[in-house]
Each structure stands twice: as structure tokens, then as C-alpha cells.
Design a protein that fits this description.
By secondary structure, the chain is α/β, with parallel strands linked by helices. The protein folds into two domains: about 1-85, Orthogonal Bundle (Arc Repressor Mutant, subunit A), CATH 1.10.10.10; about 95-295, D-Maltodextrin-Binding Protein, domain 2 (3-Layer(aba) Sandwich). It is about 45% helix and about 20% strand. The chain is built from 13 helices and eleven strands. The protein has helices spanning about 5-20, 20-30, 35-45, 60-85, 100-105, 110-120, 135-140, 175-180, 185, 200-210, 225-235, 245-255, 280-295; strands spanning about 50-55, 60, 95-100, 125-130, 145-150, 155-170, 195, 220, 240-245, 255-260, 265-275. It is elongated, with a radius of gyration of 23 Å.
């Protein structure tokens, strides 16, 4: 085993993981599948570790994820260097992969990227994931930056606080009259609810804070769409925690009612990104931080 990680081997591993098969990676790299296989084996011999699972699609092992993250960082630095030197990138523009939760994506996050996409000519590859799980994509090297609820930095990343997103407990008027007219600590744990997906624990957290321990009802509807979530609550499928910026217009119109006066759930959000001296990544971080300061608590 040697200490070197040849860049051609590293790039080959990245292509295999991104494309999902050795054949597809060979097509992208303009080499034969046999050459791809030999390069991956050579890299595994150099590291002394199995880097990919020979499945369809190919997956990166824990050791492979380390190399994949290095490969993405290497590609980012190379692109920045070529740009700084005024070298032709064949018409390509910087591409940044970012993980962001659905509620941020639907409210304050996209305006932060709009000006950059035009002025800095940066391309974005956004991955939607629950804010409690976006750090997993950072750790696996799938993204370069993430909006997350975790203040604990992933290895090799920096962290800055963005603010808190406020969620209001709301329901359709008819639903509230049927299910929530009375002692809320008793009624809410049994009331049907709307959640984003099976990973969404916001409603459970709110009920536990209200009752001192009891969770939310098992009678729940999963609606994996930000706007669809608010629509489902408005339609009366169940109660739910809706971002304040989305809830307030519906509260004013009477389409929704608040059933727990003075209560809300606040989720702290952080920006984590690779520690790279990358102008493109730095520009995005500044734009996101500024947008969060305007929109979040």
C-alpha cells in the first residue's frame, strides 16, 4: 500500500459512484469498462480498503465515501484554478451541489441563489433532504454544502448559524372544531395529523413539548411536498406545523386557524460547507447567509 492517491484513479472512482455502473463510467471517461475496473482495483490496492460495492447501482463503502469526497473537492479546486487563470473550461460553469430542506427550498432559499446563477454564472445541483439528515450527504461527499439543523460540524466542514424557522400549529376550522375543541394536552395526541414523510418528527416534537412526554397520533398522512403539505392541512386531513410565512396568509383568509395560541416550534438552521478556498462556494455562503438574515428569526 502506498500513500499516493493518483488523480486519474480518484476521478475514475467518482465516475463509477456517480454513474452507478462500470459501463456507464467507462462511457463518460471514454475508456473501456475493463480499464475502469482495473483503475478501481488499483486504487483499492493503494488504500488497502474496499472502496465500492459491486452492486447495481454501485455504492461507495465508508472508505469509498472518503475518497469520493476528496474527488469532489479536487474537482472544485481545479475548476476554481482554471477560472482564476482564465483558462477555457469548454463552456462549462462552476457546479455546486447543495442539500437543503423542503421548507427552506419553498420559502427563503431560492431567492438567495437567483442573482448568483445569473451574475456569477454558477450552476446548482440541489438535493432535497430533511434538515436533520442533510449532514449525512455532506459526510458521504454527495454535496459540498448543506442547510442543516445540526450545529456540529462534519469533519472537514465549517459551520455558521443562519437563524430559526418558525412553524405554527394550524388546522382547518372544521377539523379544529371536531378534534381540538377542549383540553389540548388530551386531544392533540389522538388527533390525525399531516407529516411531510416518515422522517418528519416536527409534529411529534411539538406534541411532546405540549404534553411533557406523549407523542403525536399514529393516524397520520404523509404528503412529501411543501405546498401539498399546507394544502392537505387546509383541506382538513389533519393538523400540522406549517412555516409561518406560508401559514399567515391562510390564517388571515380564514382557511386555517391556530389552535395553540402563543405556541410555535422553532427549528434552528445552520450552513455547513467544505473548508475549501473556493470563490464560488464563498459567494454562495454569503448570499445564503444574507437571505437567511432577512427571512429567518
Amino acid at each position: 500500500m502506498t500513500s499516493e492517491l493518483p488523480h486519474d484513479l480518484v476521478r475514475t472512482l467518482l465516475a463509477v459512484v456517480d454513474e452507478g455502473t462500470f459501463d456507464a463510467a467507462a462511457s463518460v471517461l471514454h475508456v473501456t469498462p475493463s480499464a475502469v475496473s482495473q483503475r478501481v482495483k488499483a486504487l483499492e490496492q493503494r488504500t488497502g480498503r474496499v472502496l465500492v460495492t459491486r452492486t447495481k447501482p454501485v455504492g461507495a463503502t465508508a472508505s469509498g465515501q472518503v475518497v469520493v469526497r476528496f474527488a469532489r473537492q479536487l474537482a472544485r479546486l481545479e475548476s476554481d484554478a482554471r477560472s482564476a487563470l482564465g483558462m477555457d473550461d469548454g463552456g462549462e460553469h462552476p457546479r455546486l451541489s447543495i442539500a437543503v430542506n423542503a421548507d427552506s427550498l419553498a420559502t427563503w432559499f431560492l431567492p438567495a441563489l437567483a442573482a448568483l446563477a445569473h451574475d456569477a454564472r454558477i450552476c446548482f445541483d440541489l438535493r432535497r433532504e430533511d434538515e436533520g439528515h442533510t449532514t449525512e450527504l455532506l459526510r458521504e461527499g454527495e454535496v459540498m454544502a448543506a442547510v442543516t439543523s445540526s450545529p456540529d460540524a462534519v469533519a472537514g466542514c465549517s459551520v455558521r448559524r443562519l437563524g430559526s424557522m418558525a412553524y405554527l400549529p394550524v388546522a382547518a376550522p372544521e377539523f379544529a372544531a371536531q378534534w381540538l375543541s377542549g383540553e389540548l394536552e388530551v386531544l392533540l395526541p389522538a388527533a390525525p395529523l399531516v407529516c411531510f414523510d416518515r422522517r418528519d418528527e416536527l409534529q411529534d416534537t411539538f406534541v411532546r413539548e405540549l404534553t411533557g412526554g406523549r407523542g403525536a397520533s399514529a393516524l397520520r398522512h404523509c404528503v412529501p411536498s411543501n405546498e401539498g403539505f399546507a394544502d392537505a392541512v387546509t383541506a382538513g386531513l389533519g393538523w400540522g406545523l406549517v412555516p409561518r410565512s406560508q401559514a399567515e396568509p391562510r390564517l388571515r383568509s380564514g382557511a386555517l386557524v391556530g389552535f395553540a395560541p402563543g405556541r410555535s416550534l422553532r427549528v434552528p438552521l445552520y450552513w455547513q460547507q467544505w473548508r475549501l478556498d473556493s470563490p464560488a462556494l464563498a459567494a454562495v455562503a454569503e448570499a445564503v447567509t444574507a437571505a437567511a438574515a432577512r427571512s429567518l428569526d
